[in-house]
Amino acid sequence: MGNRGMEELIPLINKLQDAFSSIGQSCHLELPQIAVVGGQSAGKSSVLENFVGRDFLPRGSGIVTRRPLILQLVNSKAEYAEFLHCKGRKFVDFDEVRLEIEAETDRLTGSNKGISPVPINLRVYSPNVLNLTLIDLPGMTKVAVGDQPVDIEYQIRDMLLQFISKESCLILAVTPANSDLANSDALKISKEVDPQGLRTIGVITKLDLMDEGTDARDILENKLLPLRRGQISAENTQPGTHTHTHTPYLQKQLTNHIRDTLPALRSKLQSQLLSLEKEVDEYKNFKPDDPARKTKALLQMVQQFGVDFEKRIEGSGDQVDTLELSGGARINRIFHERFPFELVKMEFDEKELRREISYAIKNIHGVRQENKLIHHNRKIKTHKNEKGEKVMLLIDIELSYINTNHEDFIGFANAQQRSAAVNKKRAMPNQVIRRGWLTINISIMKGGSKDYWFILTAESLSWYKDEEEKEKKFMLPLDNLKLRDAEKGFMSTKPTFAIFNTDQRNVYKDLRQIELACDSQEEVDSWKASFLRAGVYPEKDQPENEDGVPADTLSMDPQLERQVETIRNLVDSYIGIVNKSIRDLMPKTIMHLMINSAKEFIYSELLAYLYSSGDQSSLMEESAEQAQRRDEMLRMYHALKEALHIIGDISTSTVSVPVPPPVDDTWIHTDPR
To answer: What is residue 481's DSSP assignment?
Structure first.
């Protein structure tokens, strides 16, 4: 169509504003516009009504403008007004326009002076106006009224900054003539976002209230208190003053500004349209009730669920939880911290075991006779972790030596004991097993609980003032130490465990045991597992007499007692072997039987199971949220296409008007922030 003329630029921007306002989206676009800012009693309403030639804005005390008002002026033969939220209704009575603004404001903000950043769009057609678009913003205030929050000053300030901080926004800074121009709220906030004055136009109101014998001629001619884009008056009441007639001047300023920003606007529109095209392609022939679509969607969901499950187990997902262990990491903690600790805590019925051993020995009828030495069945019970998850570990440890040669068994067990002793000698005594912070719970009378930096090695537990490890507070050898659970109490609400000496000696100062606290139960379990690696095991609830011998041991002759003791030690040795095997094999077994089987079920059987379980139509029904999202995305896509079509045939090759030269505006006082 060629160049339709730069005079159509303002109506073009009006169409763009309507296109995006109608779908409730700003599309993050910075449309060229003029924002009107000023204090509550600066006379902003008079400025806007002067442009229209009609009284149509709400009046009153306090904050009157409580929502941004996008005012679009359109030159037309007929005179009427339209609201975007009242499509098709023409307002010819401007008193009704005022009432509608008040009603629409109260609809979102309530009737007691609340504010909202959601704009009201008003278009005024009149033969008395020139094409121009302005945004009226709430007046700046410092005092809350009614039910307004105490920070209303900062809420309004933030709203203003949302508009005037954009480089595409011209700022109409309104100041009354009977106030100190250097301390104008409007000019101060304008200078914050536009320090070079490239976008700020000053407006002087209430010239009739100036002191007698004074005038604003030098200010309006930009000689006194100059601004780069100059100052204009809201009323032409200064005789002999040759100033800009404000409406044509603002129209020219906005038109040039639109022309300068249009190329960047077109580029941004194209970029956003491109980002939506891939998603829109999926919906071009979209039919919500199409069975084929539902089948495809279900298949894609099942496949994605399988991928997500596998990534969760392997820890290779896009998002990493930084608050707690999850997925494969949680299973790994159970395998390598909780499970070994529970194995060590397993206890035999000592009385029953020794009885079985003694009966087995008594029932030997000959030196070479093969015998049934022990039949002992233990089960590791269901374990619940602190999150209530169950890891069902049901293991039958059958220590069955049926038809086993007695000498072979003794030789095998003795070899294992010697091997363990050699390995223990080879252990590196100074090897650091763990470092970290722990809290020592001590009564207030003895100094109170304190946090220390702990270092656990294969031979000792040391703690320092801090992690620089320069000031050592104590070193505790690990010999004869055991672990026991400790309840949370008055001293600490953190998860706690205790260390004590089996020889009934003091562990630290005059304490028979020290209680160590962590921030979480997971940390407690992890520290317990570290102590296991250092050879410090949990206590076993075995009643003993004063001599340290189990209380319910059978009375027997000395020779039989020695034999029972020997076999008992050998059984302990063998149990250690079995524990190690179970600790190694159980994670592999669970991974194979549970985790891998679950993955196989997801990939191979889940889809068929879902098809057989119910009505697929209702199962894959599109949710209201998804339908709304699809509708909003399609409306945004079409709005972007319409916007590009609107500006597609506007030529911007016209030579732009240069920006006015800089002026000295240091006279404007700025607030330190």
So the answer is: E
The Cα–Cα gap between 8 and 6 comes to 5
Report the share of the chain in percent with pLDDT over 90.
11
402 band by pLDDT with thresholds 50, 70 and 90: very low
Separation between Cα atoms, residue 87 and residue 124, nearest integer Å: 14
Residues with Cβ within 8 Å of 573's Cβ and at least 6 positions away in sequence, in order, are: 413, 416, 417, 420
Residues 6+ apart with CB under 8 A from 365: none
Residue 265: exposure state from Cβ atoms within 10 A (0-12, 13-18, ≥19):
buried
This prediction has a pTM of 0.49
Q: What are phi and psi of 460, to 5 degrees?
A: -150, 165
What is the full DSSP assignment across 577-613? HHHHHHHHHHHHHHIIIIIHHHHHHHHHTHHHHHHHH
* Burial label, 530 (beta-carbon count in 10 A; 0-12, 13-18, 19+): middle
**The predicted structure's pLDDT at residue 378:** 40
Q: Which helix (H) or strand (E) holds 82?
A: strand 80-83
Is-contact 460 443, C-beta < 8 A? no
Which residues lie across from 39 on neighbouring strands?
A: 140
Torsion angles phi and psi, residue 330, rounded to 5: -70, -40
Task: Find the length of the chain.
Answer: 673
What's the angle, vertex CA 636, arms to CA 83 and CA 131, rounded to 5? 40
DSSP string of 482-513? EEEEE---SS--S-EEEEEETT---SBTTBSE
Structure tokens of 652? 């911007």
Tell which residue, 570, 338, 357, 482, has the closest CA to residue 578: 570
Look up residue 182 and give its DSSP letter.
G
**How many Cα atoms sit within 13 Å of 16 on the Cβ side?**
28
Structure tokens, 126: 């009149």
For residue 250, what are the contacts with CB-CB under 8 A and spacing of at least 6? 34, 132, 134, 172, 201, 232
- Residue whose structure tokens are 């279900």: 298
Residue 22: band (very low, low, confident or very high) from pLDDT cuts 50, 70, 90: low
